[in-house]
Amino acid sequence: MEVHHHPHVEKKRVREYFLEFIMIFLAVTLGFFAETIRENITEHRRAREFAESMVQDLQEDTAQLKSYRDYFDFAAKTTDTLQQLLANAEPADIPSGKLYWYGLFGGAHRYFVPNDQTFQQMKSSGSLRYFNKKVASAVAKYDRLCRIILTKQLADGNIYTEVRKLRAQLFEFKYNDVANTIYQTNKKSFDYRRVDSFVRSDPPLLSNNKIVFNQYIELVRSRFLRSSFVDYADSTLKQANSLISELKKEYHVEDK
Questions:
Q1: Which one, out of 24, 130, 153, 199, has a CA that is 20 to 30 A from the CA of 226?
Q2: Which residues contact 80 (CB under 8 A, 6 or more apart)?
């Protein structure tokens, strides 16, 4: 009868088990840290890419907002003058050229459309988390201000239509067009002589009915109440410039 000899298995010491545990723990921990570092590097790179793109969008917005603000600031001031003219005299006693010039801008109309492609992309993909809390808060504030302007523009639509209807009862289109051409020309090279020449040309009115003028000026006042177009545009412009500075500082974005 054969006797089978089982191989002798040497038992590991506790110290060896402990060392193996330490090695596995270190490998897992280092792997976790390596993955975290890799994700942080990737997220920071993506944040910088988004910051560069957003700065370009904002720079386009600031140019648009400056023009938008200046246009409505001029319109508000000219309609203020129209109000003063009508408050101190009957329409029939005011030179028609003045009524045409200062009455034209009651129908001022311009849209601000924010360049929000980058913001919308980040919002839909959840990438806004790449920005730190301060920048993300500034982005949210800017978006809120833009939406206020868009809401005001939408609300203004009906009033604007009524203003244009009343203006068409008072002023003949071809002379409005002449006045508008002078305004557009003066934006590039201001020459008050052009305005003065138009005012003295005494273009004929379609009507000098006081009631229609009163209706017109009341609607115009409601449009430019407290120069809200100007105020909102100015606040949004300031926030855009602040956000540009913050993005450049935080993510080292350079002008291209």
A1: 199
A2: 224
